[in-house]
Write a structure and sequence with these properties.
Elements: H1 2-18, H2 21-35, E1 103-110, E2 113-119, E3 125-129, E4 133-134, E5 139-144, E6 148-156, E7 162-170, E8 174-176
Antiparallel strand pairs: 1-2, 2-3, 4-5, 5-6, 6-7, 7-8
Length: 179
């Protein structure tokens, strides 16, 4: 019984502590604020009407769809069927350099075979025979003459395939395009 008495005294003390006269005053102030007239809301601004231009790309190929030959794309840019780099082939040392950083230093003939001397960016010379690879785009040597080396590079085409681009390394510098 003593225990229940202590609990009752404790609860009464807590409840008496919650009775504060300031809460009544706060309630009356809130009532006054609620009864005051509120401010005016400004009217919404007028939304200007914009002239919408007509879409003129309806006759062109959808850029988000996979390219299909003959669907309005540039047929001159079509990739050659079956032409692609060989990913399983071991890369030759000159394939780790950009073709624009390589220079033809000269050529020589050994055992009835033409060999091109290619100057690397690090200053070292490398020998390259017909059929050898160089450059980052699977460039393969097609022909070697005393003053130039013709290279066929495989570059990705917008149609999703690969196309061959002929590049020429000359003694004076590099040229892109057909030899």
């Amino acid at each position: 019984m003593r225990r229940y008495g202590a609990v009752i005294v404790l609860l009464t003390t807590v409840l008496v502590g919650c009775d504060r006269p300031e809460l009544d005053r706060l309630g009356s102030e809130l009532d006054v604020l609620r009864d005051k007239p509120r401010g005016n809301v400004a009217p919404l601004p007028v939304v200007p009407v914009f002239d919408v231009p007509a879409y003129t790309g309806s006759g062109q190929r959808d850029p988000f769809m996979k390219y299909q030959p003959g669907d309005g794309g540039d047929d001159n840019d079509m990739a050659v069927a079956g032409l692609r780099p060989q990913p399983d082939r071991v890369k030759e040392p000159l394939e780790f350099f950009a073709l624009s950083s390589l220079r033809l230093a000269g050529s020589l003939v050994t055992r009835s075979e033409a060999v091109a001397l290619i100057m690397r960016p690090d200053g070292k010379l490398s020998r390259l025979k017909r059929g050898g690879y160089l450059g980052e785009n699977s460039g393969q040597v097609v022909a070697i003459s005393p003053r130039q080396v013709v290279i066929r590079e495989l570059v990705s085409s917008p149609s999703g395939g690969w196309k061959a681009v002929m590049t020429v390394l000359t003694l004076g510098g590099n040229e892109a395009g057909q030899p």
